[in-house]
Amino acid sequence: MAKRFKKVLLERLAEKLNKKQLELISNNLASGFQRIGDIAILTLNQQAINEQLQKIIAETMLKLFPQIKTVCVKTGSIIGQYRKPQIKVIASKARSRKTETIHTEYGCKYKFDVAKIMWSKGNINERVRIAKAIRPGSIVVDMFAGIGYFSIPIAKLSKAKHIYAIEINKTAFNYLQQNIKLNNIKNITAINDDCRNAINKLKHKVKADHIVMGLLPSCKQYLSCAMQIAKKGTIIHYEGLSNNQAKNLFEEVKQEAQKHNFKAKLLYASKVKSYKPKLWHYTVDVMLT
Ligand SMILES: C[S@@+](CC[C@H](N)C(=O)[O-])C[C@H]1O[C@@H](n2cnc3c(N)ncnc32)[C@H](O)[C@@H]1O
Q1: Are residues 112 and 265 in contact, defined by beta-carbon separation less than 8 angstroms?
Q2: 239 lines ligand 1 (CB under 6 A)
């Protein structure tokens, strides 16, 4: 549908807009939209398409897609340590214009407010890939758990023994707790703290088989903390940005591993998605030996 979306939308808009307005929309609206639960998020050039036209587009979308209840527009990029999105509602079927929804993916349910919490459609394969890479009976520590992007699929799709999901942001943490219940998960301990404090306490009783480090743009500064709960055989799932290849990310993990008397073996490396021009989101799985 995403590919046909713009064509279908423009055909419907042609019933009420003139040729110049349609051309403006055609040139300044992305070809697809992001659907999260019953919310649609549009990417468009806000300088070119004024608020009145945005409203017409959004109201037309609500009629075209009955399953969509609210249409939002991205007003900026994701900001800060908490990875907060910038999103504005332009039309809604609900009087409350609510931006909280439940998104389902691979049988996992994620409840969150799209105006407060980020969601990356481009990470869909990564969420499942990491879950499938978890060895049965593993202890997993998810250092940047958010609403459970990785912890929920790991609990649902792998045979992990226990998952410690650490999240610093209270809003994301509240959704993490709700998502654990919503998915009827019993083997996640959710911790609302900076992962450095949490690991300082956990290190006395936990050695992890898998450590998930999914913070962009970089989690390099947290590698020394991860090493405190690592052992021989631990696999670190490490995300980051690079302009050309995943090798740089592997080197970051390897250098920190050496400081803690581990060797590092690269098990997997891949490009996840484009982050911005000439910069890509990469992922590596590194085993400490
Ligand atoms: C948004 S998630 C990244 C999820 C995943 N990589 C993705 O893009 O789908 C990163 C989370 O780490 C949390 N975070 C940032 N710094 C942290 C810290 N020091 N300790 C624990 N959580 C932290 C943020 O609040 C955020 O919820």
Answers
A1: no
A2: yes
Alpha helices in 114-262, H assignment, sequence order: 124-133, 151-157, 170-182, 195-202, 223-227, 247-259
- Say yes or no: CB of residue 208 within 6 Å of ligand 1: no
Range of the domain at 18: 2-98
User: Is residue 95 scored above 90 in pLDDT?
Assistant: no
Neighbours of 179 (CB within 10 A): 27
CATH for 283: 3.40.50.150
Q: How far is the CA of 48 from the centre of ligand 1 (A)?
A: 33
**Residues 28-62: tens digit of each pLDDT:** 999 999 999 999 999 999 999 999 999 999 999 99
Question: Based on the domain organization, do 130 and 263 belong to the same domain?
Answer: yes
User: For residue range 167-197, what is the model confidence (pLDDT) as tens digits?
Assistant: 999 999 999 999 999 999 999 999 999 999 9
| Tally of domains within the chain | 2
- The answer to whether 217 touches 240, Cβ cutoff 8 Å, is yes
Residue 126, ligand 1, Cβ within 6 A: no
The verdict on 131 and 258 lying in the same domain is: yes
Pairing type for strands 279-288 and 235-242 reads antiparallel
What number of residues does the chain have?
A: 289
pTM: 0.93
Q: Is residue 109 part of a domain?
A: no
